[in-house]
Write a structure and sequence with these properties.
- The chain is an alpha+beta fold.
- It folds into two domains: 135 residues, 3-Layer(aba) Sandwich (Rossmann fold); 166 residues, Porin (Beta Barrel), CATH 2.40.160.
- The chain is built from four helices and 18 strands.
- Strand 12 and strand 13 form a beta hairpin.
């Protein structure tokens, strides 16, 4: 082993030795989840909530959990003392309290045992016991992620309490409107007609992970030159895979259907790839044909009844107009589904 290799080996060994205690510490961190206090709620509900919460935390990190005994804790000093007694580094205490006849308030506090500081405090309201498993899942995510439960909302873990009239918490369907622009690619769409306007009306059907969208649309040029223009009317069905259940949700997909497309080309241009023809009059052509598109974009405010989409399409129609085959375009649009 030469000197340079020896020095690299010593440096790597020193780094690994320095990191080992930190890794072991993170992996062997000891938690204590004290019994959950119940006020106006059956005691077995508190026990079940504690078990789910502990299981969700355990699934998200490699902590070891100490056995909890005794009565529930109601404050930080109690939780800290209990944690010290069993050698825990983190202690968690909480309560389920009935509020009236139709609401349960779940609160959880996480304490750093060595310092006595509060690491996290979470609170959620539910109006039925069956939603407490979702509360436990979201609290575990918020505690370990350093956020609050409001930021952990996703389709599939929304509670009934969180569904006011203006919000949607499951797959939905409704009208969609999309406005944007079209940018022809290649020699199609009238050749020199330039960019245009896009308008779509659709029926949006959405589940947790997928969406289907039959649509009818218009695309037309905006040039003032009457000798170069185009018009397209797609009637398509699209299908999309939605990559997230949160309020920012990317999606990808595509679709196909039939289109009517027409174009006008200016005079004195050559058309055709093999046999060329020179025209002195504007050339009009139109056809119905099969077309397809691929789309990528994202949804905003997905957990609400009114959603917004931003997307880009690659579009191709399999027709030949004025000897120019398969007009293609890039489409950009902003849509609203409600």
């Amino acid at each position: 082993m030469n000197r340079q290799a020896l020095m690299l080996w010593i440096a790597a060994s020193t780094l690994l030795i320095g990191l080992a205690p930190e890794q072991a510490e993170a992996q062997d961190q000891k938690w204590l989840v004290t019994p959950i206090a119940t006020r106006g709620v059956e005691s077995y509900v508190g026990e079940t909530f504690k078990e789910i919460l502990q299981a969700e935390i355990s699934a998200r990190n490699s902590a070891a959990f100490m056995a909890a005994t005794g009565k529930p804790c109601g404050d930080v000093p109690c939780a800290r003392d209990r944690g010290r007694a069993v050698g825990a580094e983190v202690a968690l205490f909480g309560a389920l309290s009935a509020l009236g006849s139709a609401k349960i308030v779940a609160t959880v506090t996480v304490v750093d045992v060595p310092t006595g500081s509060v690491l996290s405090t979470q609170r959620m309201n539910v109006d039925r016991v069956e939603d407490l498993d979702k509360v436990a899942t979201r609290m575990a995510t918020a505690i370990l992620g350093g956020t609050n439960t409001e930021e952990t909302a996703e389709l599939g873990n929304i509670t009934e309490e969180e569904i006011p009239p203006a919000k949607r918490r499951e797959g939905d369907r409704g009208l969609g409107l999309r406005v944007g622009g079209i940018a022809p690619i290649g020699g199609g769409y009238g050749g020199d007609a330039g960019t245009g306007i896009l308008l779509d009306v659709s029926y949006w059907f959405e589940t947790n992970d997928f969406a289907i969208e039959p649509r009818w649309g218009l695309r037309f040029s905006t040039t003032s030159d009457e000798e170069a223009s185009y018009f397209e009317m797609p009637i398509d069905v699209g299908a999309y895979y939605i990559l997230s259940r949160s309020d920012f949700a990317p999606f990808v997909g595509g679709g196909a259907g039939i289109r009517f497309i027409s174009e006008t080309r200016p005079p004195d241009v050559e058309t055709g790839a093999v046999v060329t023809e020179t025209s002195t009059e504007p050339m009009d052509d139109s056809a119905w044909g099969f077309g397809t598109f691929a789309r990528a974009g994202f949804l905003l405010f997905r957990t609400y009844a009114l959603r917004v989409s931003v997307s880009v399409d690659y579009n191709i129609t399999f027709v030949t107009l004025n000897d120019e085959p398969n007009p293609q375009s890039l489409n950009f649009g902003i849509g609203v589904m409600f």
